[in-house]
Amino acid sequence: MDTIEQIHKTADDLLPLYTQAQDDLPDRPLWEHPEINSVIEALRILSDILFPGKYIPEPIDFRDFFVQQLENAAEILRPEIEKSLPFLWMSAADLHENRTPIDHIDHASTEIVHQLLTTLPKIRTMLVEDVSAAYNGDPAALSYAEVKLAYPGLVAITSHRIAHELYKLNVPLIPRMMNEWTHSQTGIDIHPGATIGHGFFIDHGTGVVIGETCHIGNNVKLYQGVTLGAKSFPLDEHGRPIKHIQRHPTVEDNVIVYANSTILGGKTVIGKGTIVAGNVFLMQSTPAGSRVTRVEDGVMVRTRETHDSGAGI
Question: Could you tell me the pTM of the whole model?
Answer without folding.
Answer: 0.88
